[in-house]
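Friendly challenge for the regulars: who can give me the C-alpha cells for this chain first? No prize, just bragging rights.
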Amino acid sequence: MRKKPPLAHFELQPCRVDSSTCKPQYLYNESSHTTHNIPETSPRDSSYVAAVVMSEQQILKPDKDFSKEVDKQLPEAEKLAQTNVQGAIEKLTALEKQTRQASDLASTSRILVAIVTISKDSGDWSLLNEQVLLLSKKHGQLKQAITKMVQVVMGFLETAPNLETKLTAIETLRTVTEGKIFVEVERARVTKILSDIKKEQGDLKAAADILCELQVETFGSMERREKTEFILAQVGLCIENDDWTQAGILSRKISTKYLSRRPKKTEEQLEKEKKDREKRREKGEDVPEPIEDDVTDLKLRYYELQITLAKHDDKYLDVCKHYRQVLDTEAVEEDPQKLQSVLQRIIYYVILAPYDNEQSDLLHRVHKDTRNSQVPADAQLLKLFTVHELMRWPEVAKQYGPHLTNTDVFDAAPGQSADKKANQRWEDLRKRVIEHNVRVVAKYYTRIRMPRLTQLLDLSEDETEKYISELVTAKTVYAKIDRPARIVSFAKPRDADDVLNEWSGNMKSLLGLLERIDHLITKEEMMARIQPTKVPKASKTGKAH
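First reply, four minutes later:
Bragging rights claimed.
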C-alpha cells in the first residue's frame, strides 16, 4: 500500500479555473516550471480533500463584484458608441480588464457581449472580427465568458450584409474556437453553417471535407440528438460526394440502440410515475416533467442512408434487414401506402440475396409475416422460393414481370429508369430462380443427363454448366459433370465410415419405431382388459311360465 506523502509536498498554487466544470485542471508552480498533480487519496485522507476544496472555494470566489460599475458604465458606453465607437470600446476594455482580473464572470460576460454588440451595430464587421479575436486571447480570460461571446456572435451571422462578410465572421469564430473544448459545440454548429454554404455553392468536396473534420462523437457536451443529426449530415455529404468508404465508416458511429423502438407505457405506469412526481414535489424537490425524445425521424433518415450504402455494394440481405427496421416504426405502420411499399421491398431484396443459411432463415421468417396479405402478388412470388418445386423463368417473367418492372427496383432492359442498377437486379432475379431450380434438381436427383437438365432449367448447356459451377464453388450443392457421358452427378461420394454411420442411424431409428409399436400394442391390450363387460339387458315383456 502506497504511503501518504506529507502535505507540504503539494503546494496549492493559484491556477486558472475551468469554468465549464468549476474545477481547477492542475496546479502550476511558475518558479520551478513543474506541474504538481494532486495524488489519489482514499476517503480516509480527509486532510487532502479538505485542503483542495478550500482552495477551490477561494479561487472561485470573485475578488470584487463589479456589478454596480458595469450597470453604470454600460449605458454610458452605448450612448458614446453613437458618436465614437472606438472610444466606447476602449472604455469597456479598461473595465473588462478589471473584471477579468477579479474573476467576476457575470460582469465580464456582460462586457464582452456589449463590446461585440457595439461593433456589430456600428456596421463595421471587420471591427467585430478584430474584437472577437482580441477578447478571446486576453490573458486569463474566463471560459464561460468566451462561450457567451461566441454564442452572441453566432446569432449575428444571419444579419450579415453579404455572403463574403458572413464567411469572414464564420472563419473568425472557427479560429477562436479551435482547440477549445469548452466551445466545441459552438464550433461544430459554425462548421455546419459553413458546410451548408459550400454545398449551396455546389462545392460538395469542400463541404464534405469541412464537415467531416470534426469528430462529434467525442463531444461530451453535445446533446445526443444533435450529435446524431450531425453524423447523418456527414454521411449524406460523403454519399453525394461518392466517398462510399468514408460514408460507411461514419455510419457505424451511430448506435442503433438509440434509434430502436421504445415500448409504450401503459396507463397504470404513467399514472404511477405522475403520483411519484407529485409526492417528490410535496417534499420540496424540483422535479421536471419528463420529456420524451421521439427519434423516429432520425431512425428513418439513418436507415435511408444505410439502404443507399447497401444498394451501392449490392448487399441485398443488408438492404432487406434495413427495410425490416424501417417497417418497425409507427410512421410506416400507420400509413398503408408506405407499409405496402416497404413490404414489397423486403420481399424483393430477400429473394435477391444469395442463398445461404442466414438468407434461407430470413426468407422463411418474412414468408410467415401476416402483413404480406396486403401485397398478394409479391407474397405469391415469395412462396415460390419457399417450396421445393421448379420455377420456369419464362413463366415467372411473364406472370410477375409487368408488376415488378412497375416499381423502381427492377428494369427489364437497361436505361429504362434513373437507377442504373435496376436492370442488374432483374438479371439477379433470373439468376436466383435458376439457382433455386438447380437446388431442387439436386434434392430429387442423384444422376441426371445433361439434355434433361437443360430442359428442366430452360438453359443451354453452357449456361447450365456455368450456374452449376458457381453453386459448387459457393458450396451450395455438390455436383460433378461427366462431359463425355453428358451426365451430372449430385451424389456425394461416401467412404465406409459414412455408410456405416448411416446404417447404424437407420437401425437405431427402426428399433425405436418397433419399441414404440410394442408400447402402443401393450397399452391397447391393457385398456381392453380393464374395460367392464357389457351385460345384456333383460326384455321388458317376457314369456309366462
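Confidence is low (pLDDT under 50) at residues 1-59. The two ends are 118 Å apart (CA to CA). Your move, everyone else.
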